[in-house]
Amino acid sequence: MNLHDYQWEVIEPALEGKNIIIWLPTGSGKTRAALYVAKRHLETRRKAKVAVLVNKVHLVDQHCQKEFKPFLGDSFKIVAISGDNDEKSFFANAVETHDVVICTAQILQNALTTPEEEKHVELTDFSLLIIDECHHTHKDGVYNKLMEGYIEKKLKRQGRLPQILGLTASPGTGKATTFEKAKEHILQICANLDTWKIMSPKNYQKELETKTHLPKKNFDLTMERPQDPFGCKLTEIMRKIHEFLDDPSISSEFGTQRYEQNIVQLEKEGAVTFNSRKRICALHLRKYNDALFIHDTVRRIDAFNYLDEFYVLEKAHKTGGDPTEEFLFQVFAENKEPLLLSATNVKHENPKLSKLEEILQEQFETSAESRGIVFTKTRQCAHSLQKWVESNEILQAIGIKAAVLTGAGYSNQTKHMTQNNQQDVIQKFRKGALNLLISTSVAEEGLDIPECNIVVRYGLMTNEIAMVQARGRARADNSVYSVLAKLGSKEVQREKINESLEELMKKAIEEVQRMPEEEYRQKIFELQTESIISRKLKQEQQEYKKQKYLADEVLLYCRNCSEPVCHGSDLRTIEKTHHVNINPNFKIYYNVSPERIVIPKKMEDWIPGGEITCLCGQKWGMEMIYKAVSIPNIGVKNFVVETPDEKRTYKKWKDVPFSIEEFNYMEYCQSHFPDLDVTC
């Protein structure tokens, strides 16, 4: 295993057993350096055991197959554990019988907190933790939850803790805009990871620069459409809905983030006050605003199809009779034909697409071997861009073969990818069967993707970490990193800010690296102690909040029709994650779809059943078939929660102000199936 001199330089303290963060650019061999540390650790440490932690499922198999098995597989037992394989059910046994465990941080965190013996492990079972993309070790992220347990054990001197090795290309600034705040952010990351030092090359910086290079950066800017009849028609419809709503307090800055925030708030107000006109109009206005976003990003026909699909589904699911819904259905029906005519008119197409065509044509015409990635904000835009590429005769003529790469998380809004789908796309891209990926942020970090000639940030507004990660994908000689956006737009402003923040981050890291050792140690200790105190106070506040009301005092109403459907005391939790209703009378309020929901990972004790919807058509959740018993599993965001003091909505169950008991399987079966013979 050959390392460059700059890699030897940064791993030296780790070879001595010290906790460090390796800070190296994307593509410079952080994983290979960490692999060598793991190898030496396993060879020289008695009873050594290494955990390699990643923050995305697809990286589990990648690290295993591309790095650890080829170099260490002959000498050591290696296992890769993700949500898609069976080893997670016997995690403790897998840890005991293997030398290297590669898994998502969430799987390890679950194993640290579970009472089940076959899954439970302790941090002290490991002697080295390698934390990939360790800049995520902050706030409520799973890396930080895991490390909070580590820090607490350290301060209490509970057992011999594993060595920590963090890897990152960009720790970021944590939204800081001043040098002192950026330095504080870097120190906090170091404290969270119990870091002895952040390591970057000093003696061999020149060698690093020869091995890694920055691509040429272009700001490819476009003008507004000279004429926009489709956008004008959308805003005309929205104004008509505003007149019907007759609420002057709502902003009319259509097509903006601010307008979306106002509409989300309006829908909440309508839900908790049982004002169906306000709530339903807000839902429809948000869809029109989404259509304006899509129209601004991709094609008019994509925006039209988005609206048309929404109304088809609404008519299919809603029971009818509500005057507000009837009005909104009629408005769309009256405007559907002119919208479609405008959407299919060859004039006034999106200037961003013309510019993207020009960028891709220039790159792929000069070299048949070119590869590229177009980063876009949403899954929906990714799929729309792929359709555009496939229908574009010029791009097809120069041999562009595109595929979408998005996250594996389940979404009922857009199509998700399974882990196998992702691997298939990446393999085809590596082999050249595909040469253009249209991706959401999933491809920014960690993926072993071949060197790209062109990376395009298509109308994106993200932070400096995402900028550094995306830019790092353009590694081929003479590669180009393009920022494609409207002239004078917020996206352009944000990219310029990110450039400044990247410089601020570098200066902050260098300052932390120069700190006198005693001063640095004292600061790390203070930050760790503050974090422990802050976490305990937060836990106490959450516990207090959970005890604020009795479950019997809480009533849940359908968010759509305002029908009261259950009490808080009807609810139970399964695995502290799923919230089910055990009241047998609850079933009179909902319908279950005959088709089972497909989710992209295996569950241990349950499988998904059909989708649950209120009799009015509002989605509530899904049936979960738990150990052969069907139970309604509901999402709190689909309800209005009434306590003795107020009615309000919640995004997550963890925020509700009452406690929910854990589900008792035996008790449930005995009460719901009294005739069941359970005698042997």
- Report the CATH C-level class of the largest domain: Alpha Beta
General form: globular
* Largest beta-sheet details: 7 strands, parallel
Helix content: 40-55%
Instruction: Return the domain count.
Output: 4
Q: Spell out the CATH superfamily of the largest domain.
A: P-loop containing nucleotide triphosphate hydrolases
- Distance linking N and C termini: 60 Å
Task: Name the beta content range.
Answer: 15-25%
Low-pLDDT runs of 5+ residues are none
Strand order of the largest sheet: 3-4-2-5-6-1-7
**Could you please say which CATH topology of the largest domain applies here?**
Rossmann fold
- CA-based gyration radius: 27 Å
Given the structure, what is the number of helices?
21
CATH architecture level-2 label of the largest domain: 3-Layer(aba) Sandwich
Q: How many runs of DSSP E, i.e. beta strands?
A: 23
| Average pLDDT number | 92
- Helix/strand structural class: alpha/beta
Keywords:
45% helix; 6-stranded parallel sheet; alpha/beta; Rossmann fold; 4 domains; 680 residues; 7-stranded parallel sheet
Quick summary of this structure?
The protein has 680 residues and is α/β, with parallel strands linked by helices.
Describe this structure in words.
The protein is α/β, with parallel strands linked by helices and 680 residues long. It has 4 domains: 5-211 and 515-532, 3-Layer(aba) Sandwich (Rossmann fold), CATH 3.40.50.300; 216-223 and 350-510, P-loop containing nucleotide triphosphate hydrolases (Rossmann fold); 229-343, phosphoenolpyruvate carboxylase, domain 3 (Up-down Bundle); 551-672, Metal Binding Protein, Guanine Nucleotide Exchange Factor, Chain A (Beta Complex), CATH 2.170.150. The strands form 5 sheets. The chain has a 7-stranded parallel sheet, sandwiched between helices. A 6-stranded parallel sheet has the order 8-13-12-9-11-10, with helices on both faces. The protein has a 4-stranded antiparallel sheet with strand order 15-14-22-23, covered by helices on one side. Helix 6 crosses helix 20 and helix 18 packs across helix 19 (490-514). The longest helix has 30 residues, at 517-546. It is globular, with a radius of gyration of 27 Å.
